[in-house]
Specification:
Number of domains: 2
Strand content: 5-15%
Mean pLDDT: 83
Bound molecules: zinc ion
Radius of gyration: 19 Å
Low-confidence stretches: none
Distance between the termini: 9 Å
Shape: elongated
Order of helices and strands: HEEHEHEEH
Largest sheet: 3 strands, antiparallel
């Protein structure tokens, strides 16, 4: 950061405002910067559709397309009247109405790094 004291001060105030705005609105869980990992429960009842997906990684921007029946952990927690571990985790619900009941989940692996990358992108765009 360079410029006169006034210019530096103006940039710092702008950065402070951007961070406050980001905190207020949050980030969509479906941003490219977020990386999710598909996890099965790894027992003998895991279905042939889910089993090969175990440990695969998925960018946030592709999660909805890859798992169209997914519901968020926070929605499920709310329905059950409890508090979810991570508001960004998803239940992929792979075989909606099928023979198997899906117990898999899609876990956000990089919440802090993803948020930092998104924040950094917004700061670069304006400073
Ligand atoms: Zn499953």
């Amino acid at each position: 950061m360079s410029g006169s004291l006034e210019e530096v001060r103006a940039k710092l105030l702008l950065i402070k405002q951007i961070i406050a705005d980001c905190e207020a609105r949050g980030f969509s869980p479906f941003e490219l910067e977020f990386i999710y990992k598909f996890l099965t429960v790894k027992d003998k009842h895991v279905c042939p559709k889910c089993e090969p997906l175990h440990n695969t990684l998925h960018r946030g921007s592709y999660v909805q397309g890859a798992f169209p029946n997914a519901v968020s952990a926070s929605e499920v927690a709310e329905a059950l009247g409890s508090i979810g571990d991570n508001q960004y985790d998803l239940y992929p619900n792979m075989h909606n109405g099928g023979d198997y009941s899906c117990r898999c989940y899609v876990k956000l692996t990089n919440a802090a790094e993803g948020c930092a990358a998104l924040l950094s992108k917004e700061l670069i765009a304006v400073t």
